[in-house]
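__Protein archive entry__

___
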Amino acid sequence: MASIGDGRMNIIRGLHNLPERFRDAVVAIGNFDGVHLGHQALFARLRELAAGHDGVPIMAVTFEPHPLSLLDPRRAPPRITGMRGKARWMEEAGLDAMFVLHFNRSLAGTEPETFVRGILVEGLGVREVVVGENFRFGSRGAGSFTDLRRMGDQLGFGVQAHPLVFVGDQPISSTWVRREVEAGDFGMAARLLDRPFEVEGRVVSGFQRGRDLGFPTANLALSGMLHPPVGVYVARACAGGCWMPSVVNIGRNPTFGDAEIHLETHVLTDIPLNLYRQVLRVQFVKRLRAEMRFPHVSALREQIARDVASARDFFSVGAG
């Protein structure tokens, strides 16, 4: 079992790691990718239920990896949040724990009643379950909300469906968030998430080209994660709880012929930083330009200097 944030939020992987104090909880079930406004409204309902049961634990039951990555990898969506971010936003929403079910072939083939009896009742001992109104569960999605409520009546736990949350005439969904980020509309993405969109990961070793060019960067791997279109962005970066203005490049570095998309962050500070292997959060603010191929390295260096100057102007950060 792991914890995050101030230590109150617990990440529990598998029934064998479930502490006794998290039995008899009120739970929500879903993927909760992004923990957007719709998810937050559902979690608010959990808090209300817990208050009516003398403050029993509040827990989200979620799946790792995303079920489509196993069932239909070609349709598996990029992740809005990794596990660390998902736990952070759940903690902010007032949850006590995130219970993670490893989604494998065995779980995918579990019949709805077996899932309810084995995991929800015998495993977790749930008191109340809240799900979205379009919730499906069990092998091939055979179980519906009506089935879950019937089983709850039979087995002694409450079941509620939470309605969709709308912005305008559209229901909020993780799919909608992805669409806005992929279009570079950070304003709408932030409205749906109720916070700025960000990418988070551990800083990995790069090619050291930024340092050689005079603009050292922290590099994040983007495999499987949602990100904006390739290009250069004004952004904010956070390491160790400290937010710093920065410039971010997302792309393949066509000047050097790289094949994979990666993210490079240049923090606008005159203080030397060593961010290697630290967890870095990057919030996107504004797009500066598209990705470009330069005829030589000196032209690239000159453009990076212009990008940095533009970002400093945006943040009103002096060059020192």
Residues 213 and 226 are 28 Å apart (CA to CA). The domain at 2-164 is CATH 3.40.50.620 (Rossmann fold). The longest strand covers residues 279-289. The chain has two domains: 2-164, 199-315.
